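Aim 2 progress update. The chain analyzed this quarter is reproduced below.
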Amino acid sequence: MSNPLRISLVAEGVTDYVVLKAAIEVVLNGRSYNLKLLQPDESVAFTGQGQAGVFGGGWPGVLKWMLATVGRAGNLANDPLFLNTDILILHLDADVASVLPAQNNDQSIAGLVNDLPCAVACPRASDTTDCLRTLMLKWVGEVVAPPGTVLCTPSKSTEAWVVALFFPADREMNRRGLECHPNPAGRLAVQPRAVRFPKSETAYVDRYQQFKDGWPWLVGHLSEAQRFQSDFAAAAGAIPP
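Predicted structure tokens:
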């Protein structure tokens, strides 16, 4: 029997974890794996108490994790976490590219936030996500992604994937573009009462099978979902079963 693929995830939140876990399971197509959430801290992230560990949650927590990695190892490629990890996924929503330095009250990440904003007019989504991905690598002391590292940058957020999957006829999302609407989570919240659901761990877990079933459709319609699948499949394929 082959050893499970060891996957670690650094993400903005637990709802991102649920969506990405569904995608990973589809791409691996039965290959065994273990998925560990490094950020937010897995030991507290699923308590339902809004906790996220020492770095906190959201995009600031991801940036703090990146700073800690560089402080520990000098760059991501030398981080000891790879001793127990086959694939590391680094997730940031592309709306981070629009953050203004003045919006950040945390001086510990001021040096990183000063690289922002780098967002450009959408479409194309990739014009912004490419810039954000370049900054993500810079923030972990790299120029190119180290072997086994996969970047995930949904445009403008993972909720764009959620709304596109569950509410593909949403007029406002389609008018602006499924990957260009600046606030997909806001669209999730204004769906008809009979069918809408909140952005929450419980609601997403309840729909886990639907995320799995709908992942191929997302890959066919959203460029960043396609890019994540392609990059992750390549990383997984490079590791013998």
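The CA atoms of residues 73 and 80 lie 8 Å apart. The radius of gyration is 17 Å. These observations will guide the mutagenesis experiments scheduled for the next reporting period.
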